[in-house]
Amino acid sequence: MSNQDQDNLTDHEYDGIREYDNKLPIWWLATFIGTVIFAFIYWLHYEFAGGPDLQAELKIEMEQLQEKTGGHGHDHGTAVAVSEEELLKLMTSADTVSNGKLAFTGKCASCHGDQLQGLIGPNLVDEYWIHGKGSLSEIHTVVSQGVPEKGMPAWGAMLKEDEIKSIVAYIGSQKGSNPANPKAPQGEKVVNN
Ligand code: HEC
Questions:
Q1: For domain 84-189, which CATH number applies: 3.90.110.10, 3.40.50.1460, 1.10.760.10, 3.30.310.50?
Q2: d(CA 179, CA 122)
Q3: What is the distance between the alpha carbons of residues 36 and 52, in angstroms, rounded to a whole number?
Q4: What is the pTM of this model?
């Protein structure tokens, strides 16, 4: 061992193991001091300067989500009511109805049948309804909110509002279509519907 090395050795020793007193590289020191400063500012910000805590951050993000999804979000039960008139008017637009048909075939037919005759879910073109009396606004509500406990998904959280309206218009346009092999009626028979 040279004298130079001897000089750089620290004077403690553990079981014969000794340690050089080397200078720390600048990049390492800078990073280290940087993290200390960062931690201090972070602590000041969140403990004293009113930085949002996790709960508050979650709340802010949920509110942003609500805004994006037009008040639907995952907040079951807050679907915007849509007027019967608006939906009836959409039913007269061939474009809307054909968009609705396309969406229905992709999202709903697997459970309600491609003729709406019912499969896992109920027939949507007969006179029997479990939820409401088959008005377009009632259909809109059940489609948006779903019946999760019965296996009907809440589409308000998954589809755009316009898409839901067009699907409802399509369902309305198919009323009384009398498809082959209909599912047995479910719910209450609605008279004068
Ligand atoms: C995973 C299967 C499934 C899918 C997919 C599904 N549904 Fe349903 N749907 C159901 C079931 C099951 C019910 C019956 C709920 C109950 O018993 O209360 C139902 C009920 C309904 C009702 C109310 C019927 C009534 O008699 O009151 C409407 C309207 C409806 N669905 C529309 C749709 C639309 C529109 C879509 C596509 C956007 C869709 N459903 C997708 C399973 C499904």
A1: 1.10.760.10
A2: 13
A3: 21
A4: 0.67
The finding on whether 102 has its CB within 6 A of some atom of ligand 1 is no
Burial bucket for residue 97 (CB in 10 Å: 0-12, 13-18, 19+): buried
Which of 146, 139, 150 lies closest to 74 in space, CA to CA? 146
Question: Taking phi first (over 0 means left), then psi (-120 to 50 degrees means alpha), and beta for anything else, what does residue 59 get?
Answer: alpha
Please answer whether residues 144 and 78 qualify as being in contact, where contact means their C-beta atoms are separated by less than 8 angstroms.
Answer: no
33 touches ligand 1 (CB under 6 Å):
no
Report the distance separating Cα 92 and Cα 173, nearest Å.
8
Rounded distance from Cα 124 to ligand 1 centre (Å): 8
* Binding site membership of 164 for ligand 1 (Cβ less than 6 Å): no
Residue spans of the domains in the chain: they are: 3-47, 84-189
The per-residue pLDDT for range 14-71, each reduced to its tens digit, is: 998 988 888 889 999 999 999 999 999 999 988 888 778 888 888 888 888 877 766 5
Length of the chain equals 193
